[in-house]
Write a structure and sequence with these properties.
alpha+beta; Arc Repressor Mutant, subunit A
Length: about 190
């Protein structure tokens, strides 16, 4: 086995010492942009694959994390965080799949009004953030997910969100919703 090169060691040290996950630009600034940092990150991720810790990229940010199959060893008794309400889960899902999305759009998709507290809880968790304002009358604020959302749910990017077929296969879709979706398809076919 060859000893690691200086760039690989520098990147490893920068990531280990970082208080939070680092972007490629932050890593390049830390190591002085010497060499092919992106390729070296890939090689480091390969080196750590199958070990007790892994180098992962989540939402464009790199960090070390405990190997998923060993997480049970590190669990400690701790206060269980509050679970999200059904409204919170639905709101988070709508934002994740439709971002950037305004409060009115969330309410239109859910079919009911949401309390400001629901958005506040999601922002306090660090899973959503304000994403600017729409260029329409009233200039409503829009919301989007954060890199903390991706990291918490183990996603590299929003493209990794499960599709409708994945959700059906996992049994996560309400049979009533599936029946309504089927009726819509059948009525569209009848109209043609």
């Amino acid at each position: 086995m060859n000893p690691p090169d200086d760039l690989k060691r520098a990147i490893e040290a920068a990531l280990f010492a970082a208080e939070a996950p680092l972007t490629l630009t932050e890593i390049m600034a830390a190591v002085g942009e010497a060499g092919d940092v992106r390729r070296t990150l890939g090689a480091l991720a390969d080196d750590y694959a199958g070990r007790g810790i892994n180098l992962v990229e989540r939402g464009g940010r790199w960090h070390f994390q405990t190997a998923p199959d060993l997480a049970h060893i590190l669990r400690r008794d701790r206060e269980e965080p509050r679970r999200l309400s059904r409204a919170g889960v639905e709101t988070l899902a709508i934002i994740a799949y439709h971002e950037p999305v305004s409060r009115a759009e969330i309410e239109a998709i859910r079919g009911v009004q949401i309390s400001k507290g629901t958005l506040d809880v999601l922002m306090e968790a660090g899973w959503i953030r304000p994403a600017g304002r729409r260029e329409v009358p009233g200039r409503p604020l829009t919301y989007a997910t954060t890199s903390a959302f991706l990291a918490h749910f183990g996603l590299a990017s929003r493209r990794d969100l499960p599709g409708i077929d994945d959700l059906k296969a996992a049994g996560l879709l309400d049979p009533v919703d599936l029946a309504f979706a089927q009726l819509e398809v059948e009525s569209d076919d009848a109209d043609d």
